[in-house]
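>> received
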Amino acid sequence: MLTLESQERIKSANPRLLRKEGFLPAVVYGSVPETLSISVPAVEFLRVWREAGESSVVSLALSKGNKKVLIYDVQKDPVKEYPIHVDFYAIDEKKEVEVDVPIEFVGVSGAIKELGGTLVKVMHEMKIKGLPSALPHAIEVDISSLAELDSQITVADIKLPAGITAVMNPEEIVVLASTAKEEQEEEPQQDISSIEVEKKGKKEEENAEGEEKK
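>> returned
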């Protein structure tokens, strides 16, 4: 199990100064007596986050001992996209939790490879529920069953690990093989010469009508 060091943080501490010193402000809530304000080393957090994601249990070293947590939410800088704040959820290993797990698409679709269809990934993560020890790092979806154009895979079609259930509408589409877009036909161009002749004829008619009135 991955371990991450931490240190207590005064709530009034300036987050910008913490980040300049190489730490990320964070909180721990869930299966703890009260919400804890802490900070974690930014570089170490990034390493753990890459490996654990948001569904693997991490051992967080606190002043009163290690606590098993999930990386529940990571707030990012809106421009530079790097983490600026972390929420850790302290777990009770005997209670089920709900998490969003990334989807990994595997296999080869006949509708795509042989029929020229387009693979449309409707979902990129799935909300699941289970005991912390049973949570997978990712959910694999085999697209080889997409053999025909317009075929699809729904939440109900996905085989989940033992002890894991999807917290979603079973009829929701995860991925589908869409019919390839046909090239749009070019609109026929009008013959400019005929337009000019038409305008010329209309002008001559107007002139003729004017002469008759005289």
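>> The mean pLDDT is 86.
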